[in-house]
Amino acid sequence: MKRTLKLKLVKAVKIKPSFPFDFNSTFYKPDHFTTGDNFWQTDIRWQTWNWQGRPLGIKFLNRGSVSQPVVEIKIYANYKISLNSLHSLLEEIKYSYNFNLNLKDFYQNFKNDKILGKIIKKWRGLRPGHPSSLYEYLIIGIVLQNASVRRSAQMFQALLQNYGTLLDFAGKQLWCFWKPGGLKNISEDELRLLKVGYRAKTIKKIDEQFVTGQINELDLRSQNRETQMSELLKLYGVGPATVWYILFDVFHHLDYFDHISPWEQKIYSKLFFNRDPENPIAVSKLLKYLERFGKYKQLAVHYVWEDLFWRRRTEKIPWLEKEIRQ
DNA sequence: CATCAGGGCCCTG
DNA sequence: CAGGGCCCTGAT
Q1: How far is the CA of A97 from the C1' of C7 (A)?
Q2: Nucleotide nearest A237, from its CA to each C1'
């Protein structure tokens, strides 16, 4: 059993995102499976963060409103974090959660859309966002491949609990991701014992490619989408589905939408065409339909999707339960 | 019990 | 460019 790392509060800052900004729908995405690296309750989000190779705990608190947003960020560590490092961490947080995204044009364009209209009103200030680094997201993407939600969550938790660090901060115990290259001394067979199956090979290779510097997140961030895609596709085990997730969640492309997996196809068929999910609309037709959202295709679907999963928390949506297969 | 399809991707032919 | 194989799991 690994030791728990106790962290102390080292810094608290208040940041004002651009408005409108909705704390809860930005910091909690009900469609993401829970993995023990974060915890949310109304107006508070706990999140572990491997920053520059070391584990940190972060507590986000809602200190404002949608129209006058203020987010307090409390940082917990077990070492002295330099001012420089702290500053760049805050910049990274702002980037990850799209604190400065301007939503006005999107809202203006679609306030009368028959599907989006109501949703953007209800979720005004919702930002897309994801706390994972590229490395972390690649690992997540790999455990998502060819597996149902329950199995993906199981694989991810096994990885986290074996190679991550359990942090104790702000009243929570949460697992923090290991750093890129952290699997250097772990064999493929050892990974297989965690029942990740053939993904063991992929996970090893991804980890190695970060050690050797074959891929650099910040460099890639400054490249255009085509370059990002082609670089990511070079990684062993990364194909169009994984790239599609990363382009949105890691590189924040709000417009790119070219991939629909079978289970998503069923859900979109119901959402956009009120079609029986068992008799779904063709992917090509769905993609054509999404053209109406132009440069906000991915953002628009994110809103519809989050709305659906937020509703799932309070209403019964039998057809959805059937498609999710927990 | 056995068989099978997954929230893909690689590799082969 | 089509299709088999891959790990494991829960559903049938």
Answers
A1: 34
A2: B9
Strand partners, A8: A77
Which residues are CB-contacts of A318 (< 8 A; sequence separation ≥ 6)?
none
Pairing of strands A8-15, A38-41: unpaired
Backbone angles phi, psi at A11, to 5 degrees: -165, 145
Q: Which residues contact A145 (CB under 8 A, 6 or more apart)?
A: A199, A237, A241, A242
User: What is the spatial distance between Cα A30 and Cα A43, in angstroms, rounded to a whole number?
Assistant: 15
List pLDDT tens digits, range A72-130: 999 999 999 999 999 999 999 999 999 999 999 999 999 999 999 999 999 999 999 99
CB-contacts to strand B (7 A): A 31, 33, 141, 144-149, 151-152, 198, 235-243, 261-264, 324-325
Contact indicator for A8, A78 with CB cutoff of 8 Å: yes
**C-alpha Rg value of chain A to the nearest Å:** 20
The hierarchical CATH code for the domain A6-102 is 3.30.310
How many CB atoms lie under 10 A from the CB of residue A285?
A: 13
Residues in chain A: 326
The whole-model pTM stands at 0.96
Distance CA A254, CA A297 (A): 7
Collapsing DSSP to helix, strand or coil, A61 comes out as: strand
CA atoms within 13 A on the CB side of A170: 24
User: Closest residue by Cα to the C1' atom of nucleotide C11?
Assistant: A325
Residue A325: what pLDDT?
Answer: 66
- Residue spans of the domains in chain A: they are 6-102, 262-324
| Residue-wise pLDDT tens digits, A21-78 | 999 999 999 999 888 999 999 999 999 999 999 999 999 999 999 999 999 999 999 9
Asked whether residue A326 carries a pLDDT value surpassing 60, the answer given is no
